[in-house]
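call fold target=Putative RNA-directed DNA polymerase
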Amino acid sequence: MLNNTFTSQSLAILLWNANGLANHRNELITSLNEKRIDIAFISETHFTSNSKCSFPGYNTFSSCHPDNTAHGGAAIIIRSSLQFTAAPPVNNDFLQAAIVNINLNHVPITVAAAYCPPKHKITSSQFDSFFNSLGRYFIVGGDLNAKNQTWGCHSTNPKGHSLFQSITSNHLTILNPPNPTYWPTSTRKRPDILDIFVTKIPTNLNHLIKNLLNPSSDHTPVFLSLDGHPSSKPNKACLTNNSTNWNKFREIINSKINLNISLKTPNEVEDAVQNFTESIQSAAWNSSTIQKYHANSHSTPTHVRKLITQKRRARARWQRTRLPSDKNLLNNLASSLKRMLSKIRNESFNNWTSSLTAESGSLWRATRSCLKQKTAQAPLKNSNGTWCKTDKDQADAFCSHLSKVFQPHNDINNNHLDTNIENSLFSPLPLYLAPKPFSPNEVQYYIKSFPLKKSPGLDLITAEVARQLPKKAIIHLTHILNSILRLSYMPLQWKVSVIILFPKPGKPPDIPSSYRPISLLPFFSKLCEKLIIKRISQLINDKNIIPHTQFGFRNKHSTIHQIHRLTDAIAYSFENKLYCSAVLLDVAQAFDKVWHTGLLYKLKQFLPPPYFLFFKSYLENRHFVTKVGSEFSNLAPILAGVPQGAISSPILYNIYAADQPISLNTSVAEFADDKIIFTSNENPLVASQHLQNHLNEMEVWYSNWKIKINNEKSSHITFTLRQGVVPPVSLANKIIPSTTKVKYLGLLLDKRLTWAEHIKQKRLLLNSRRKSLYPLLGKQSKLNLKNKLLLYKTLLKPIWTYGIQLWGTAKKSNIYKMQTFQSITLRIITNAPFYVTNHTLHSDLGLPTVAEVATSSYKRYRSRLTNHPNPLILALTSANIPGNPPRRLKRRWCRDLDT
């Protein structure tokens, strides 16, 4: 049976030894689209760990040679619309294999692209081990360099003998093409069959196998068609699309909403929330038409088709005659086809870039495509060490890992304090007035304040859907929210989060802890939180619950303010010949390990009873599910931590950490969970002792409130121009590692505060990002100059301008490094000839130099500090360094930018 039309009714497989895949990319793309291939098995990719080769509409999984040089290797290229799960690759010197798990007729089957280098021996037991690792059913395809007359070869070699033994003992099947696949250039070598399939598949699957002539290398491809039905990925779940009729949506909602309902008990609130959610979902689905998926048509131009036909005929002729003249003709046609495909691709890219505009959003979609790191879905290990084979397995593995994360540090105990806290929580609450109810206008205002592009929670309701709600629905929602406030009860449905996970850069991708969880909460849950937080924010400010040293998640507070405080202390120490010693503390899973009982105790100290009881209900009985692809894990409880992604989480964490001990001999700078303690003294022993005393107090506080510190990730640094050494300090009897440079809130500080290391690292980052954007910024790009400058100002310039108010006083040699980056980038953007000066470029484009940006940025920054409500930030407006030390050094400080 041969049916490789794009109907998902059969599985179309291409097997090909590319002998260097990158050189044949354009030709392979054409073949994949023309023949509508579902899976391509590629041998001899010549990939390394740094290789990048993508195919539109497909995912690529590769296996490199273990020596990581450009030879050997295998890859699987699988259509993105199919449902699949990556498996760990095999990287041996005698066998490389890329492996993916799919479903065929709802039966799990493993597909593997393999390559066996000719110079390495492989035994039948090694073949057995490989085949047995693939599971019950599998399809292995590749150039195994195994010849055996059983599958049509002219002779049998040792690999072919070993493979035959393994096939016989394991009851496997060989699917070989009818004609040779390897065509050596030398006429003294005989063509032979090297590219074959080794299979173990259900007997009800019929197949057809044949040789192809395109794409071409020294091997011809093999086409295999199986009449199985491959499972496709389901469409993304959503309530609306571009066809949604919003007038009809509002009419349906109005017909379903009943304002005359009782909302006096938690159960009635639950039922009202459930009915309201279902009404919105039903109205949205009934107002939207299902949009059918249309595959992108990749029509090949007529002149390219003619050239492909000529090349195919020339290859067939050469394979018949083996004449040098026919080989020359084939080579010429192959070169012409490669040049033509490259030209078409370049013309298509130029047309695309010339059509990009910022107004339509196409420019920003293009930049995201350039900057987004395309990481293939990596295989994942369970906690027991086995590999996950399906999306459901991966979702359960992530759920199991996060269930352990969302628990308090129960190994830290203070029985006396725990008892006092529990007694306080169970003590009766004072009498209180009912809180002021929400108004429909207030609810409508906050709905409009939410951004439209945020992902929905489990109920699929987005801010866009909420904005389209009619007035009757807003009134009904207001009644529900007021009943929640009156009863101090958060509905269970709004306490379930969907967690999706993204790999952390530079971490091993097969471990669940190497992934960053992103929590998606129901929209109305976030709306409710926003309304509540608005009510209690003024109370928190009036009672000074959050200390002035905490700048994180607070209005009119930024990271630059906090770093400025630290650099002022360093400047004072340098001018007075002091040692400024500092400790940066890294809290282990700070937001995920907040002890709920302790947080409620602290909330009860100042919140009116209705709001305290609301947060008590808000934190209790929270659950989450993890999502991988379209699969969900089972429901799991959240026993600790402030809800990730929630509106109230930052302020709840600040409240939990608000009562940390302070010392007269040290200063503290905090931004959420990033904490630094610093002190200055002319005696290094005294400086160390002051730090140690404060750390001893912090150790007691951490123990009381069940918080752990990562000593390995914490740092101890001394900023000084003197030669003395500050003794090390410890926390919980563990020495905190000493270092000569630290990264704090995005700026890299070295012990002499030269900013050289920070500028060096930023320059490397900028070079890398400019390289990623080069297709849009380079001289080959047809993007107009206005849009190129816009990309530079929005995607590159903010990287180096961050913190320039402080590092802008670095030495001219360091500033020059950043200035050369800007000059080179402007020259690339404009494609300016060598005789155009950098001054002319800056002048004509209206861009200031780096030094000018530093001066103007500091002046704007300082002008905004006046009349600040935080006295610590207000102190930064002084004309001199706080403490007014005598200026003995020639170096400049940030205030010198204002002179």
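return ok
The radius of gyration is 33 Å. Residues 489 and 650 are 21 Å apart (CA to CA).
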